[in-house]
Specification:
This protein is α/β, with parallel strands linked by helices. It folds into two domains: 59 residues, DNA polymerase, domain 1, CATH 1.10.150.530; 272 residues, Alpha-Beta Barrel (TIM Barrel). 36% of the residues lie in helices and 20% in strands. It contains twelve helices and 14 strands. It has a ten-stranded mixed sheet. Strands 1-2 form a two-stranded parallel sheet. A two-stranded antiparallel sheet has the order 7-8. Strand 3 and strand 4 form a beta hairpin. The structure holds S-adenosyl-L-homocysteine.
Length: 350
């Protein structure tokens, strides 16, 4: 059970310093608490051994460190991918996915309960939007995953439920927390924020000075097709988003990842390859090809129900053409399909 106390988890180091000021505590206490909370991942103030007993008692009485309750987990048949299901203190359910792969273990975190975007190929969109996660709730998915795996998480992708840039402040705060970590934590170089394309927020993230990696869910290089599969494109056009990610790449010195879900007849044609090649030449980037994961478990209707995956051979041809033009292409595994933990399948039926 998550207690009905104020939540401490999610405060950045600067916010902890302000809190120390307000409570007439020296600033170094902020560093100590930060370290316990985000590096040692303690779940009880009494474990913060270098704080005075009085301070520990005060903190325990007024605050809690626990924002999420792990209520279930499911492993895929090959025992690699693991889906974690959490309950928030507001009694909502969210999911994270642990994806081991050769020499790294990636954690895919959610930033919202549901999603307000209506991307036609995504299960989370079909469940609608419930709420933004707090920075503590975003961080706690990592804390739970680290405890569960014995500190094996090496990379984080903000690619679970929700649109991170529509929960901008909390996403930014969670990145600030990761950026601040002083021990063997995860550096921002190992963190990728994925967005469907909220151009003004991409610019804001670029200016924040936090140099995480950025992925743009591209899915088509043509405005009309993109608008059909991702209605948000009517508000922030592809053109605007491409200018924004180009600026992001310049500001951060990173390469953009273009995510591309292969949809039969919609974005797997010859002209799509050509457009991708010319785009890749313009923006420092790599392409992440994603086989379309079925939404059947959600009983979609309308245009969503018409979407079909591009065949495996056709994907191979498509990828070969890109690679022949010297483009860096990665084809993502459909890991976790059997437990509905693959990309775009996260949606809670609890
Ligand atoms: N809102 C963010 C992050 C969540 S989606 C974004 O749009 O980027 C994370 C990735 O999963 C995106 O690239 C998305 O396009 C992809 N995805 C969504 N539904 C999918 C599906 N059914 N099959 C394969 N990938 C999917």
């Amino acid at each position: 059970m998550i207690e009905n106390k104020k939540i401490f988890k999610g405060l950045t180091l600067d916010e902890l310093k302000v809190w120390c000021d307000e409570n007439k505590l020296p600033k170094f206490r902020a560093d100590q608490i930060f370290n316990w909370m985000y590096n040692y991942l303690v779940t009880d103030f009494n474990e913060m051994l270098n704080l005075s007993k009085d301070l520990r008692n005060k903190l325990s009485e007024e605050y809690t460190l626990n924002t999420l309750e792990l209520i279930d987990s499911k492993s895929s048949d090959n025992n690699k991918t693991k889906k974690l299901i959490f309950k928030t203190s507001s009694e909502h359910f969210i999911e994270s996915v642990i994806i081991p792969d050769q020499n790294r273990v990636t954690l895919c975190v959610s930033t919202q309960v549901g999603c307000p975007l209506d991307c036609q190929f995504c299960a989370t969109g079909l469940m609608g939007y419930k709420k933004n996660l707090t920075s503590g709730e975003i961080f706690d998915q990592y804390a739970h995953a680290q405890r569960l795996t014995g500190n094996e998480i090496t990379n984080i992708v903000y690619m679970g439920m929700g649109e991170p840039l529509l929960n901008f402040n909390n996403t930014l705060k969670s990145l600030e927390i990761f950026a601040e970590k002083v021990t063997e934590g995860i550096s921002l170089k190992k963190i990728t924020v994925s967005t469907a394309g909220i151009a003004p927020k991409i610019l804001e993230l670029a200016k924040s000075g936090l140099k995480s990696k950025l992925a743009l869910s591209l899915h088509s290089c043509f405005e009309d097709i993109r608008s059909k599969i991702m209605p948000i494109n009517n508000k922030y056009s592809l053109k605007e988003n491409l200018n924004a990610v180009n600026f992001y790449a310049e500001q951060t010195g990173t390469r953009i990842t273009f995510e591309y879900v292969m949809l039969k007849g919609l974005n797997d044609r010859k002209e799509d390859v050509k457009a991708l090649i010319s785009l890749s030449k313009r923006i420092p980037s790599k392409i992440n090809i994603i086989p379309f994961n079925s939404l059947e478990h959600m009983n979609p209707s309308g245009f969503s129900a018409e979407l079909k995956p591009t065949s495996k051979t056709k994907i191979e041809e498509f990828v070969d053409r890109l690679r022949n033009s010297n483009i860096t292409v990665l084809v993502r595994d459909t890991q976790g399909d059997d437990i509905a933990a693959a990309c775009g399948q996260l949606a809670i039926k609890y």
